[in-house]
Structures are given as structure tokens and as C-alpha cells.
Amino acid sequence: MYVHVHTCRLAVPQATQSRFLINPLGELDVQLAGRRTPLHGRFGELSIQPEPGGDWCLRCSGQWQLKLKRRDAQSVQNLIDDARDEMEALMRDL
């Protein structure tokens, strides 16, 4: 079981360097430059949706939200899907 990592710069206005840590246990942590504690969310609390202007918004049940460029949003979504698939495979093997 591996943690999947995606590094990118958030879309404007935040434009902060960020690291997304996605694990098969169904959790996402986002480390933001200049912030000590990461943002945390479970897969069931997350939504990734397009916004006017071409950016995408990653939301965690009203707790926090981040603007991403389209390719970064797709990459994060793909890594979440891969982590879900990995967890399902692990559960089947038990």
C-alpha cells in the first residue's frame, strides 16, 4: 500500500505550492507552503467540480476548498480513483 503524491501550484488567487498525499485508506492530506498543518479530508467528503473560467474547485464538506487548474484536478481525481481501486483489491485479497 503506497501513498500517491501530486505536487502543483494552486490556481489564482491562492497560487500556493501544494502537495497532495492520497492514500488507499480513503484519506487526502494537502500540504500548503507556509502552513504548518495539512488540510485533511476523507474521500467521501471530497468533490471536484469545474468552475467558470476553466479552473476546478476541490471542496471538503464545507471545511475547506482549493482552486486547481484542470490538469491538476484531473490528476488528483485519477489518483483518488487509483487509491480506491487499490483498497478494493486489498480487501478482496483478505
Overview of this protein structure:
The protein is an alpha+beta fold and about 90 residues long. It has one domain (about 5-94): PH-domain like (Roll), CATH 2.30.29. The protein has one helix at about 70-94; strands at about 5-10, 15-25, 25-30, 40, 45-50, 55-60, 65-70. A four-stranded antiparallel beta sheet has the order 1-2-3-4, with helices on one face. It has a three-stranded antiparallel beta sheet with strand order 5-6-7. The model has no long low-confidence stretch (mean pLDDT about 90).
Shape: globular
Q: How is the main sheet built?
A: 4 strands, antiparallel
- Encode the helix/strand succession as letters: EEEEEEEH
Low-confidence stretches: none
Number of strands: 7
CATH architecture tag: Roll
CATH superfamily membership:
Pleckstrin-homology domain (PH domain)/Phosphotyrosine-binding domain (PTB)
Number of domains: 1
Order of neighbouring strands in the sheet with most strands: 1-2-3-4
State the CATH topology: PH-domain like
User: Strand portion, in percent?
Assistant: 35-45%
Mean pLDDT: 92
Number of helices: 1
The CATH C-level class name? Mainly Beta
Give me the secondary-structure topology.
Blueprint: E1 4-9, E2 17-23, E3 27-32, E4 39-42, E5 46-50, E6 56-60, E7 64-68, H1 70-93
Antiparallel strand pairs: 1-2, 2-3, 3-4, 5-6, 6-7
In short:
The chain is of the alpha+beta class. The protein has one helix at residues 70-93; strands at residues 4-9, 17-23, 27-32, 39-42, 46-50, 56-60, 64-68. Strand 6 and strand 7 form a beta hairpin.
